[in-house]
Amino acid sequence: MPLPAATLSQLRTIVGADQVLTSKEDLIPYSFDGTAAMSQMPGCVVFVTSTEQIAEVLRLANGTKTPVVTRGSGTGLSGGSLPSRDCIVMCTARMNRILEVDRANLTMLVEPGVTTLAIADAAASVGLFYPPDPGSMKISTIGGNVAENSGGLRGLNTASPATTSWAWKWFCPTAKFSGPATSA
Ligand SMILES: Cc1cc2nc3c(=O)[nH]c(=O)nc-3n(C[C@H](O)[C@H](O)[C@H](O)COP(=O)(O)OP(=O)(O)OC[C@H]3O[C@@H](n4cnc5c(N)ncnc54)[C@H](O)[C@@H]3O)c2cc1C
């Protein structure tokens, strides 16, 4: 069953009308991920740009019992961002800011849509080395990397996202927020 007009209207209010895709042509690229053998049409795609928007989308979805599938760049090979029928695809790829590079503490504070390559480049710009190097690193996002624990050949003798990423901020499906207190 397609998403009710009222739900779509509320989503447009939350993220802005231009951040919600609903036409068949626009939805097709989001109906599959890197696995490609499987596909399913979502009800809409929503591009979130802040944690507040994520919370509001989840609250609305929880209240209307609408499934949500989170998506980064959709390069996953395990069907993780494959939509369920008529779900809301919540895409975090536009949350792509590097908020802080703290050389002294060897840490970086980033939004989930930053690409792996951008993170590696930011580390290199201050003389540091970010090891995880999935073959998709030019387009895969750190959110997807963490969810899939994606690494590449450098992970054989260095590290994977499971050991290099920590202190995530995350949401329950009920929009309950959890994570460390940070300034960002
Ligand atoms: C050409 C190619 C080469 C690849 N090479 C490698 C490789 O060398 N090593 C490797 O491990 N993998 C590889 N992959 C697989 C894939 O690129 C990785 O799994 C990558 O981490 C997925 O990132 P993504 O942003 O595309 O995530 P998506 O495919 O969009 O999502 C993957 C999973 O992460 C979840 N997710 C995404 N963003 C968030 C978020 N913000 N919050 C919570 N959950 C989120 C999704 O729900 C989904 O379950 C490759 C894929 C391709 C197409």
Structure notes:
The chain has two domains: 5-91, 2-Layer Sandwich (Uridine Diphospho-n-acetylenolpyruvylglucosamine Reductase, domain 2); 98-165, Uridine Diphospho-n-acetylenolpyruvylglucosamine Reductase, domain 3 (2-Layer Sandwich), CATH 3.30.465.10. The protein has a four-stranded mixed β-sheet with strand order 1-2-4-3. The protein has a two-stranded antiparallel ribbon with strand order 5-6. The protein has a two-stranded antiparallel sheet with strand order 7-8. By secondary structure, the protein is α/β, with parallel strands linked by helices. Helix 1 (5-15) runs antiparallel to helix 3 (51-64). 32% of the residues are buried. The protein has helices spanning 5-15, 24-27, 51-64, 116-125, 142-148, 161-164, and strands spanning 20-21, 44-47, 68-71, 88-91, 98-102, 107-110, 170-171, 177-178. The protein is built from six helices and eight strands; from the N terminus they run αβαβαββββαααββ. Bound molecules: flavin-adenine dinucleotide.
The CATH top-level class label of the largest domain:
Alpha Beta
Rg, nearest Å = 17 Å
Tell me which ligands are bound: flavin-adenine dinucleotide
Rounded mean pLDDT score? 92
Treating each run of at least 4 consecutive H or I residues as one helix, how many helices? Answer: 6
Helix content range: 25-40%
CATH topology of the largest domain: Uridine Diphospho-n-acetylenolpyruvylglucosamine Reductase, domain 2
Order of neighbouring strands in the sheet with most strands: 1-2-4-3
Largest sheet report: 4 strands, mixed
CATH architecture of the largest domain: 2-Layer Sandwich
What is the overall silhouette?
globular
Distance between the termini: 39 Å
